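Ticket #401: bound-state structure for magnesium ion.
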Amino acid sequence: MEFDFSYQFSPEEMPPPQKKRIGLFGSTGSIGKQTLDVVRSNPDLFSISILTAYSNHEMLIEQALAFMPAVVVITDTSRYKAVHEALSGKGIKVMAGEAALEEAASMDCYDLMMAAIVGFAGLKPTLSAIEAGKTIALANKETLVVAGDVVMKRAAEKGISIIPVDSEHSAIFQCLVGEENNPIEKIILTASGGPFVGKKPNYLVNVKREHAIAHPNWSMGAKISIDSSTLMNKGLEMIEAKWLFNLQPNQIEVVIHPQSIIHSMVQFQDNSIKAQMGLPDMKLPIQYAMAYPRRIKSDFPRFNFTKSHQLTFDPPDIKTFRNLGLAMTALHKGGNLPCILNAANELAVFGFLRNRLGFLDMTEVIEQTMNNTPFIAEPTLQEYLDSDGEARNFAASLINL
Ligand code: NDP
Ligand code: MG
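RESOLUTION: The complex was predicted; output attached.
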């Protein structure tokens, strides 16, 4: 889809900001909680209309009492009673179950969806929000990895914007403002490299959950932290970038930049490279997506150029971090392969987090699942959903889940 970056304004002409009503899907997670911080800091700009969680009903109740949304959804139906009782008489509609996420996503009570559910589970509610004509602030990268063509096509048909929240994609999006007629030569996604940058397989084979989950620069949910440590996260981001910015696979490059100051770059046809920089803090891309096309003032700590810093760049070690290589294969081959890769990875990470799989075994599960799930070159949405199920079954059989 083409982004419309043509919004022009001078401060005098700028209309008074209208309060955006946020539907926050995945409110109890890392992105969810930081979104609520942004809303708390900007009560004149944002209000919360929908909150959703999977099973953390205690935090969901706390958030609902603080932000008084119109609707809350708890996906795990066994927690419905507790949420319903705690919020009774407050004028908050309480819903439960997977289908309730889609129902809430199609409601009139909000303007912008913050898509912050983790994994494949984010796809259907996001599609439902697109159908309802909502603007999407997209944190859930798996949505585009699984069915990027379907999602972007439907968004274009409905004329709605998908604004990236992922820091690299937000960086690229910010670099593209004002460049709508200038073709991109390539984009350069930066990767911190995670906690094991520079390590080799003889070290990785012994890595445990606690090591892998501790990211040096970012504090994130468990799944994305593991994905960062295997570099699968960067692979998923390459696929995400392909769909968001309508790129060919060979226009997407990855570079290891352990300081996480440059969040990504765009190289144009005249060989000019634009970068977006800042200290790593997800609240910045979150609030940028929520407030776009405005920038809102923040009190986040500033990067200090008068101090000595080293910004370094190295090629990724795909031989050691084979998950990135598998994701590149999926990116190049296309069809349902990224969907299969994603499903196998979700199960492999699940297995690793529960100590059922070793660190390097995750790669084996993903590779075997990619080799054993039927390939479809141009899948329909239903075929994507079926491929996800088949790949999950195959991966689960390898892990003995
Ligand atoms: P978390 O694991 O911290 O939070 C996930 C949220 O989704 C929680 O609210 C959780 O509810 C809910 N959830 C989990 N599973 C389901 C399900 N099956 N159905 C419905 N809801 C579910 O994840 P993050 O916030 O770290 O990440 C969210 C998304 O944003 C991911 O796609 C990630 O890749 C992306 N992202 C995250 C970044 C970060 O800094 N964290 C950076 C860039 C992208 P409950 O708490 O009840 O389990
Ligand atoms: Mg990212």
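RESOLUTION NOTES: The mean pLDDT is 95.
TICKET STATUS: resolved
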